[in-house]
Specification:
It is found in: Cell membrane; Membrane. InterPro entries: CPA3_Na-H_Antiporter_D, NADH_UbQ_OxRdtase, ND/Mrp_TM. Pfam families: Proton_antipo_M. The structure is a single chain. With about 525 residues, the protein is an all-alpha fold. The chain is about 75% helix and about 0% strand. It has a two-stranded antiparallel ribbon. Helix 15 packs antiparallel against helix 17. It is globular, with a radius of gyration of 22 Å. It starts with a helix and ends in a 6-residue tail after the last helix.
């Protein structure tokens, strides 16, 4: 198992190097990228089954024992995140392969796209298994470098501008995180997460609070938590469709994952739980109000992404095993559903030539499959029973009710309202894009209805086609989102066991230091 844990990080890194040497062989690059992510998916599944049955794994790299060496830790939460992230990265990669085949790689130049994509995967996987703060910081920097390249692919002015905003904000976040690491090391003499839970508790309370807040601010920017979320709706929509999908599905969840580790292991006293619940409510409300006001589907989804981060903070702030279990399930649900919606939006953009809601219409008539692929995850994100979004929110509300505090009840009310507004915003967009007739759209320029009427005359031969591989990748993600409902009971049971593991630092500490830590 130690070798498999190491391969989770090494395989995508070595795969990126191999793909870079094959810059003039796009098919070889594609094969390398798909093979690497498929292998990590299998390894992640094996690790998940193993740690669920036998307990968490701690791997000491280079023969250096903790806390002096780098430690990789895989518990149930980390293993579950590895599986979900690998599945999402693989599906989006397949989607981008289809887009590249159809467009001649105008949107995703193969020579740089696949190596950079695998570097991004390296950062994501390493973040989930990092056992010390500095290794986690390295993961964020890997993500920053790779994501900046991906968000500016194509070199258009809007993408360069969005990439500039993204990198400035990310650098500020990284600087705050690095400063926090330096202060923590100066105060405790270690950056090992398991050891910090012991040593930080020995510091004066005011010093603990400063360090705690600094970590939360750094991770809050990564997770797009209000009021640190202003950058996201202006950055993500500018990237190519597959890049936007993987960013929306995964990158903010890495920040949420870091917040979980901070609150449950590094600072397990729960002193900022009320603050987290207040921030969760504001993130929900402000995010969804922004979504309701949008006339572009990508920006609308970006604001719903911000809004639903609040649900995850809700589960974390409750600070109970039930709340953590619900938050874990909701994270899995949101990664899957949000990615699926952005992939479906990529299909809409190909069919209609735009993501402007007011400029689209009649797509259900010409592309009913895309309508279905958007409709199912839309219902799930909106919390319609029996989909996974409803189940996750119900579990969060139940955990909040059991908590019984005033902030928890306020969050329940906010969560119910935000769920309704989410459904309203998405249903309105779906109705305008798919249901209304193209004749109702002023200055309508969508070529597809014309194509259907005149039978594909030479006048519309320039219309981009939608390859089956893109539709298939999106359909696979829809199937995964439905599977979260069909297999909700075993997934909830797994999430509950993961929640019990991270409800306090004891399990994590004994995994890294079986004989105890000072």
């Amino acid at each position: 198992m130690n070798t498999l844990t190491t391969l989770v990080v090494l395989l995508p890194l070595l795969g990126a190097a191999a793909a870079l040497t094959q810059a003039k062989r796009p098919r070889v690059q594609t094969l390398i990228a798909v093979s690497v992510l498929s292998a990590v998916l299998v390894i992640g599944a094996v690790l998940l089954v193993t740690v669920d049955a036998n307990g968490a794994i701690a791997v000491e790299l280079g023969g250096w024992s903790a806390p002096f060496g780098i430690v990789l830790v895989v518990d149930r939460l980390a293993a579950l995140m590895l599986v979900v992230s690998a599945a999402v990265l693989l599906a989006v990669l397949v989607f981008s392969v289809g887009q590249g085949l159809a467009d001649g790689d105008r949107e995703t130049p193969v020579s740089i796209y696949y190596p950079t994509y695998l570097i991004l995967a390296t950062g994501v996987f390493n973040a989930f298994v990092a056992g010390d703060l500095f290794n986690l910081y390295v993961s964020f920097e890997i993500l920053l470098v790779a994501s900046y390249v991906l968000i500016t692919v194509g070199g258009t002015a809007p993408r360069i501008r969005a990439g500039t905003v993204y990198i400035v904000v990310s650098l500020v976040s990284s600087a705050i995180f690095l400063a926090a690491i330096a202060m923590i090391y100066g105060a405790t003499g270690t950056v090992n997460i398991a050891q910090l839970t012991v040593r930080l508790a020995q510091l004066p309370e005011d010093i603990q609070l400063i360090l705690h807040v600094m970590l939360l601010i750094g991770f809050g920017i990564k997770a797009a938590v209000f009021p640190l979320s202003f950058w996201l709706p202006d950055s993500y929509p500018m990237a190519p469709a597959p890049v936007t999908a993987v960013f929306a599905g995964l990158l903010t969840k890495v920040g949420v994952y870091a917040i979980i580790r901070t609150e449950m292991i590094i600072f397990p006293d729960g002193k900022l739980n009320t603050v987290l619940l207040i921030v969760a409510a504001l993130t929900m409300i402000v995010g969804i109000l922004g979504a309701v006001a949008q006339s572009d589907i990508k920006r609308l989804l970006s604001f719903t992404l911000v809004s639903h981060i609040g649900y995850m903070l809700f589960g974390i702030g409750i600070d109970t095993a039930a709340g953590l279990a619900a938050a874990t399930y909701y994270i899995v649900h949101h990664i899957t559903v949000q990615t699926t919606l952005f992939l479906a939006t990529g299909l809409i953009e190909r069919q209609g030539g735009t993501t402007g809601i007011n400029k689209l219409g009649g797509i259900l008539k010409t592309s009913p499959m895309i309508g279905v692929l958007f409709f199912i995850p839309m219902l799930s994100l909106g919390g319609i029973p029996p989909f996974s979004g409803f189940l996750g929110k119900l579990a969060l509300f139940e955990a909040g009710a059991n908590n019984g505090s005033v902030p928890a009840w306020v969050l329940i009310g906010c969560g119910a309202l935000v769920s309704l507004l989410t459904l309203y915003a998405l249903a309105r967009a779906w109705s305008m894009i798919f249901w209304r007739d193209s004749d109702e759209v002023a200055s309508y320029e969508n070529p597809l209805p014309d194509l259907a009427e005149i039978g594909g005359s030479p006048e519309v031969e320039s219309v981009r086609t939608t390859p089956r591989i893109m539709v298939g990748a999106t359909g696979a993600m829809v199937a995964v989102s439905v599977a979260l409902t069909v297999f909700a009971t075993p997934l909830f049971d797994l999430s509950a066991r993961a929640g019990e593991n991270i409800d306090g630092p004891g399990y994590y500490v004994t995994t890294v230091f079986p004989g105890g830590s000072e």
